[in-house]
Give the backbone structure.
Amino acid sequence: MPDTRIKVGVVGASGYAGALAAQLINRHPHFELAYVTARAEAGQRLGDLHPRTRVHLQLTEFDPDVPVDAAIVGYPHGAAAPAVAALRERGVRVIDLSADFRLQDDEVYREWYGEHGAPQLFGTAVYGLPEFYREDIRGADLVAGPGCYPTAALLALVPLARAGLIGGTVVIDAKSGVSGAGRNATDTTHFVSANEDLKPYKVAGHRHRPEIEQELGHDVLFVPHLAPMSHGELDSCYVPASREITPGELREVYADYLMEPFVELIGRPPGVLEVRETNDCRLSVHYDEHTGQIMVFAAIDNLWKGTASQAIQSLNLMFGREETEGLLS
Amino acid sequence: MPDTRIKVGVVGASGYAGALAAQLINRHPHFELAYVTARAEAGQRLGDLHPRTRVHLQLTEFDPDVPVDAAIVGYPHGAAAPAVAALRERGVRVIDLSADFRLQDDEVYREWYGEHGAPQLFGTAVYGLPEFYREDIRGADLVAGPGCYPTAALLALVPLARAGLIGGTVVIDAKSGVSGAGRNATDTTHFVSANEDLKPYKVAGHRHRPEIEQELGHDVLFVPHLAPMSHGELDSCYVPASREITPGELREVYADYLMEPFVELIGRPPGVLEVRETNDCRLSVHYDEHTGQIMVFAAIDNLWKGTASQAIQSLNLMFGREETEGLLS
Amino acid sequence: MPDTRIKVGVVGASGYAGALAAQLINRHPHFELAYVTARAEAGQRLGDLHPRTRVHLQLTEFDPDVPVDAAIVGYPHGAAAPAVAALRERGVRVIDLSADFRLQDDEVYREWYGEHGAPQLFGTAVYGLPEFYREDIRGADLVAGPGCYPTAALLALVPLARAGLIGGTVVIDAKSGVSGAGRNATDTTHFVSANEDLKPYKVAGHRHRPEIEQELGHDVLFVPHLAPMSHGELDSCYVPASREITPGELREVYADYLMEPFVELIGRPPGVLEVRETNDCRLSVHYDEHTGQIMVFAAIDNLWKGTASQAIQSLNLMFGREETEGLLS
Amino acid sequence: MPDTRIKVGVVGASGYAGALAAQLINRHPHFELAYVTARAEAGQRLGDLHPRTRVHLQLTEFDPDVPVDAAIVGYPHGAAAPAVAALRERGVRVIDLSADFRLQDDEVYREWYGEHGAPQLFGTAVYGLPEFYREDIRGADLVAGPGCYPTAALLALVPLARAGLIGGTVVIDAKSGVSGAGRNATDTTHFVSANEDLKPYKVAGHRHRPEIEQELGHDVLFVPHLAPMSHGELDSCYVPASREITPGELREVYADYLMEPFVELIGRPPGVLEVRETNDCRLSVHYDEHTGQIMVFAAIDNLWKGTASQAIQSLNLMFGREETEGLLS
């Protein structure tokens, strides 16, 4: 009997997201981790760099010619596009975790990120939010993994937008753990700087705003905050309602989530700890009669549902596996 | 030469706020800590219960007949009013840290707190925010210390209200450290529950909302969040501007703060760590052209400027001392 | 085809250890979670109390007559013994997580714990440390799960004892995260007390000392410390060597661990984060020529290898499953 | 009346220790902060780099010709010696926070640190632990501030050594917060690495060992651990007693500390939080009859009593001020 396991490489596995993607593929019953790459850390074992991955493969230099069925690319914005192009030329199906293929409008891309590294592929990716693009992802060769903030914000807000309930500027006050700032050691990520602190950042405009607006179809004021925790992300969304609405009607707006394996509408505001190291998004929705505002709170693990495990969810869809496979422990 | 130091008692010194008030009085050059009281912990030395106070006085049962010039009352809402009344009857000048005397409308009080414990005094207190009520505090016999959230929110928003710049519902997304939940050991304050978590609470209405609205004169949507840190509070305020405004004009709106010893408008969003264990409030203000919203971020230490050190600031005013005395270390 | 899955109940599933045991059984491919019990929380769903368990069963009152193949008992010391006895009378195979069946000497038990609640069973349990009692566990009907501190300490020290290398009093300086103090909300477990603190406790004698000495056959000075983290335990062990020894010889002493699926001797001191939420124990061993002391550092997750996942490891052995089943994610 | 305040410069004020020393001098009633220097950060205001210092002076390049009465040097080991020499040549009295002048044996220095940068001054400094060298410090022109670990360890152990109670190898299991690793952003100090972790480091020999042994006159096994907190240090010391001893006798050994303003022997093990941001050292001492070991636990704030505030304590002595001046808030 032939080995029918799907071979998956992880390009850029030294960062938090790539390393977790490698870990999840490695323990997946039907995917096989074919390789893990890194630049500065090539030669080290992934498990020495990130012990909890339990991946004993050695990090290698990226070589697009190594034959695999799929690859997850964990490079930074800008660096990802050429690697994705090289893989696509060889027929490899790709999930890119960077922002390089999330936007559809090339002018917006240029404004926030500069020149694109693979313009021939720009606009060809499916936006990798399975809850809204499930069927497109099944057939996709190139999936753009959403940003962590947009994942939570869109799961929180798209049902309201579809129901016509957004009646003004949406305010998204988002809070992220420090892993969201990446593995680079900086003044910001130093323990003594981040511990016992909490502060807004990039208030003049964060790159995730245009991504949210593209998918939501409404203007948003998006303000991220750095919170003193390793994992976790909470998007607190404030929406001027277009009309009065009852709690029952509000819940009805989110009724589709009853069928979603990883999204749960709960009756109290969610905390990030309850979804830590899971692919789950937990939401609550409330109507404030006093001000006519709808509040939606969405909690995810920024590295899991916000990045790496959501990529595995898409990979399951792309290769005809159960969407939840390898993600339920 | 007679001892001219002012004698101050702290009623309810076993909680975080009362204990800190006692510590600040104890180290103050012109106040003398006359007594510290507690119920369950009477008989213990305050310094054994709260080592960092370095206060060796024994906690006693409350006795309003002990002669003092002033008292700070650190009782919970409802329990404070009768103690305040007993002290006022004996001519003691009082700063009450509870909510019992903050509101001016007795129906609003009843709606949020129930029957008042000293109706004869209701409405007679000065709201203890020195930046806005400095002169009234100087002559006051009863000062109602503001809540920690309102302190930051009002310092952030009152200048905008006075300038007529608030053009719609104000959203206040507030984040507090766990000390804001008090010294009671509960499931919420357990280290394993709070650590690495971040979540909204009391989203259906927090008692600080009517207090903010009373002082601001505008409706607000106020949503507090519990953050995994001991101290600190950040109020992120989102205000639909009544008109377009330039950054320079916005700064001008806050120009009065240049004269304030404890309030500083800075050019980047403040974090809570930089004001930890100080009486300072640090603010930044920004205009988002994209959505026409004004953002104001205000950081304080919830136990210091938010409660206990702000009370000392008022006490300095009440007794003709320099406003900053004992608060600048 | 009959259902061959093994039915397992968890008695006392509202605490951290019992809840985790229930979670691990629930996701195990060959065990079926038959019931979860609690006293105060009966009627609630386990997943509402401990969201990350993802266990939707309702907590019920303990009823030993519910037919199961095995039960894990998560009751406190003293309360466990009668429940264990009731289950054993009905032929249920039991893993007890308390200290009630760990000791072999009933006088020692009485000294540290008082009267035993099921004296007829005292001394009949197998000590549930699979690395040293694997064969006994396979055939056991009653397994006493080791304490979290002894698990790490014995994995660190037994090889030295067997090699005759312990030449004097062993000092064990142990550090545990706050979950080791249990789910009860107390002054000690309050976030504001525990955060940014680190302190020794029970220095006059901790109940884990006699347990370690029983299994080690040597006197130890055991001093636990509470550290500001949720999970994790590090036992730092200092052993006067009975003779000079080279690094190579020292590693040889631990050579059996090469065959162990969950114990790994590494070349640098381990940290607790790298074994978080795993059944792994990571150790390092060093010889200090300057003082003639051997140092052994052992890191585990106190709730996993220290308690609940180690119980699943034993349960796998008792029911003839692969020892690692359900534990490798 | 002439200005009699003593002018003090801080050389190397961009690190945690130098910045805190500058803050403490700045708020001191009789010292005047003359300058603060830094290399990479020259041109910035100290208060922008370290907001809580509230020091508005601009960081400048080091210039030994600027006239001051004293200087605190916060340079790294090796870099400090030449700066100290330049200052001493100009008659400036110096407290050096580095290790460059702590050791008395130049061979030991060379073994651990390499060539000395100012050999003409080697061995001329007074060891800046006021509790043991008070009189020498009063007259000193060059004081070597002790390391943070030795400060706690020596306060814990010297009384035992003087009483002849040390009967074998002393084990010091030390735990430090992350600020002890300095302000450099590294993999080790990254929030995501350090948070929820606890691990030993430099187990093959830490530079503080020879310093402790020099002052103690006994061999020690010194093992530092990194703990997930910003501030704080706990030295847990295990000493084979040279004879049996009663608790009363043990307390008697530490009786001199009754006269010490900053050292307190307490009846329970101390935690680091209770001495946070103070110049205090809190100790407890216990005798374990079971093993004949004396245990001493000493808690300090590594940046305060462990470094910067202890330097102010020495500076007070050097200039004839009250030893506690500026240190009691």
